[in-house]
Design brief:
With 138 residues, this protein is mainly α. It has helices at 16-36, 40-54, 58-64, 68-78, 99-112, 118-131. The chain is built from 6 helices and no strands. 4% of the residues are buried. The model has no long low-confidence stretch (mean pLDDT 87).
Length: 138
């Protein structure tokens, strides 16, 4: 059983935004419970969202999230331009240190090399990072 609670619980009369925040918290708790209970549709939703995130499909990420308006609002605080919806990085990591972008680069390079060369390719990436000054934020 889940109980819906607003941020103002027992502190004051909730307004429209408090009710919305309470409902979102409820949806997150319900989804977490569905995942824990092994509901396939809950896992499918997470998998689809993860795929959209990995592919930098911002529109789908917003739509699939439990609070689409808030997700887009957070994104647009830092990257408001329409062109940012096509960006292959997020505002947190930036274009140089995005783990998903780096993973995609590695996946692409693995397609063109022999599997035995993966370790040497990883060493090359490491050396590249060191030569650039080992700065995470450029």
């Amino acid at each position: 059983m889940l109980c819906y609670v607003t941020p103002k619980e027992h502190l004051g009369l909730p307004n429209k935004d408090d009710v919305k925040e309470g409902i979102i918290a409820y949806k997150i708790a319900a989804h977490s419970a569905d995942i824990a209970k092994g509901h396939p549709q809950a896992q499918l939703r997470d998998n689809v969202l993860s795929k959209a995130r990995f592919e930098f499909n911002w529109t789908d990420q917003f739509g699939i999230s439990l609070n689409p308006e808030k997700a887009q609002e957070f994104h647009d605080e830092t990257l408001p331009k329409d062109s940012s919806k096509l960006a292959h990085f997020c505002s947190m990591c930036g274009p140089k240190f995005c783990s998903m972008n780096i993973s995609q680069d590695i996946n692409e390079s693995v397609k063109t090399i022999n599997i035995k060369n993966i370790e040497s390719e990883m060493k090359k990436k490491s050396e590249e990072f060191k030569k650039s000054g080992s700065n995470i934020y450029v």
